[in-house]
Design goal:
Layout (H helix, E strand, L loop, with lengths): L2 H14 L4 E7 L4 E7 L2 H5 L4 H18 L6 E5 L2 H23 L3 E2 L5 H10 L6 E6 L6 E6 L7
Parallel strand pairs: 2-3
Antiparallel strand pairs: 1-2, 4-6, 5-6
Length: 154
């Protein structure tokens, strides 16, 4: 989806929600990220990021309806909240991977969202000692960090 069109849609959506918006920037690359700065960030993010997840779902559905599923591949981040959360997920995954390496044993992580699992899978995609695998169903789906011998080829 065109960056200017996406910026316009998100700005309009936030205006309809009567939220004070400082700026809206669209960064394209590996993933399209819509960075929003707002004084109403607590309202936009909500408890444990629930409102932000809902805002993302709503925005994606609106874009899907008008422009198709391919255009709805973006993420809205408010005041860097989402990126800070993803950095916490990465830090936890690195710590758990160290545990897997130290004990040479598989380690299970807590249940997480599909996007968080994607971040962890990407984090270890080039790691010669750790292989990631998703397990579980629904809201209990989680990642298992599997230790593999450096000599093992998958």
């Amino acid at each position: 989806m065109d960056a200017a069109l996406l910026k316009s849609l998100v700005t309009e959506l936030l205006t309809l929600l009567e939220v004070a918006v400082g700026s809206v920037e669209v960064k394209t690359g590996h993933r399209t990220l819509v960075q929003v700065t707002s004084e109403d960030s607590a309202r936009l993010i909500g408890p444990q990021g629930e409102s932000l997840r809902s805002l993302n779902t709503l925005a994606r559905r609106l874009v899907e309806a008008k422009h198709g599923e391919q255009a709805a591949n973006f993420l809205i981040d408010v005041n860097g909240y989402h990126e800070a959360q993803m950095e916490k997920v990465r830090a936890q995954a690195r710590m758990m991977a160290q545990r897997a390496r130290l004990f040479k044993h598989d380690v299970e992580m807590s249940p997480m969202s599909p996007y968080e699992r994607l971040v962890v899978h990407e984090l270890f995609s080039e790691d010669p000692e750790i292989k990631t695998e998703s397990a579980g169903e629904g809201k209990f789906r989680h990642i298992i960090l599997k230790y593999k011998d450096a000599g093992f080829v998958s």
